[in-house]
Amino acid sequence: MSEVRIRRRYIDCAWGQLHLAEAGSGPAVLLFHQTPRSWDEYREVLTILGRRFRAIAVDTPGMGSSDPLPQPPTIEGWAAAMAHLLEIEGLDRVDVVGHHTGGYIAFELAAQAPDRVRRLVLSSTDLLNVGARAIRTGRRGIDEVEERDDGSHLAELWQRRAKYYPQNNRLLKRFLRDALCTEDPEDGHRVVARYEMEKRLDRVRRPVLCVGHARDRFAFGGQDRLAGALADAQVRVIHEGEIPLEHTAAEFAQIVTEFLSAD
């Protein structure tokens, strides 16, 4: 089998540019990353999905190499930006995949444009309601560090994330590189904590796959709560799965391929 290559480019939008990476050809699949990452979270997944699909990983506005939106960020605003991307690219109907923050953007895109989304994969995505928002708002964010002139906040950010990562400095380097591209690496988590997801549940009527990562201490278990609140959802668990999607990229890509290829 020939190697699937990743191509990177920018899309001109009304407010600036969106950066994306894509691989392969065929039915389109959009992939949205967690906070404060970039398309790089899907680097390994892209080359696997690209064997069967046109896999497109998009940098969320204000993260990676995408320009921020002019207004304060919201899940609704980010999803509207992705809907704008569909218009520009002429994509009438797509499958959508999201991990952590990207899962909420994917969910909201399906709520805003239900006729444009065929199937939905929500990875490490919990059900957000009043109680869940209160918990998120009341705790210190994992990436919340105070910037200091001596740069010690970068070491603190590394150490705070290292507790939730496998013993793999390569993955932490990729995380830190992405975090430095944002104005505030915690801001995306604050955006999620304000999202009133429960008000959108009845708008998502497409088949949904909720993926749980058993070693993700922030989100594991949420896949069952969310699936139980949706009309047409199933659950898969990756037992070695962690917060960084790259850790089990091959298994995740296989699960996504099976779900998107099902009759």
TrEMBL record:
Annotated source species: Pseudonocardia hispaniensis
Domain of life: Bacteria
Identification of the protein by name: Alpha/beta fold hydrolase
TM spans (from-to): none
One Gene Ontology molecular-function label: hydrolase activity
Domain AB hydrolase-1: start-end pairs: 27-135
A Pfam family recorded for this sequence: Abhydrolase_1
Keywords: Hydrolase
